[in-house]
Write a structure and sequence with these properties.
Number of helices: 6
CATH architecture of one domain: 3-Layer(aba) Sandwich
Radius of gyration: 17 Å
Order of helices and strands: HHEHEHEHHE
Structural class: alpha+beta
CATH class of one domain: Alpha Beta
CATH topology of one domain: NADH Oxidase
Helix content: 25-40%
Largest sheet: 4 strands, antiparallel
Number of strands: 4
């Protein structure tokens, strides 16, 4: 089987990570795969903010949990030490689609490198707050941005989950 198709069929969302941060070289490969995602009119509008600083990662986890309204002792990032946040300009009509392709590419790349990943929502709500807008400003990122998702990445601390059976009647051919 083709290795790309194998990665697509085998990749799963991981919900338990080791605390060890993957090397920057691996994260850079994942990010590069995201940057090569297809985009509307080839505009390449989405950006990625790579968060490996533990204090900021933990703050973001707590803020994400507050938005979710979850249990105070849980971690919506499942212990993943790296959070790759995908954002896109609020005025770009294709922002969610383009950003989603970036997320998908990064999750496949993480799997191909032997790492686990999971897509966590609520980046949109986070980056509507002054705190996270301030982080973007500190990075020199101007304009209005919408958070598309968090690609949480790290070493798996579990077995690769078994696939859920695919639902039937989802493909229709017109010959």
């Amino acid at each position: 089987m083709n290795e790309v198709i194998r990665a697509i069929l085998e990749r799963r969302s991981i919900r338990k990570f080791k605390p060890d941060l993957p090397p920057k070289e691996m994260l850079d490969q994942i990010i590069e795969a995201g940057l090569y995602a297809a985009s509307g009119r080839g505009q390449q509008k989405p950006i990625i903010v790579a968060i490996t600083n533990k204090q900021l990662r933990d703050r973001m986890s707590k803020d994400n949990l507050a938005i979710l309204g979850g249990d105070r002792d849980s971690d919506p990032f499942y212990g993943a030490p790296a959070v790759l946040v995908v954002l896109a300009p609020k005025d770009w009509y294709n922002r969610v689609y383009d950003g989603s392709l970036v997320m998908g590419n990064m999750m496949l790349a993480a799997h191909a490198l032997g790492l686990g990943s999971i897509w966590i929502h609520r980046a949109r709500e986070e980056f509507e707050t002054d705190y996270y807008k301030g982080i973007l400003k500190d990075l020199g990122i101007e304009g209005e941005w919408e958070g598309i998702g968090h690609c949480c990445v790290g070493y798996m601390d579990c077995e690769l989950p078994k696939p859920v059976p695919r639902k039937s009647n989802r493909v229709y051919y017109i010959d």
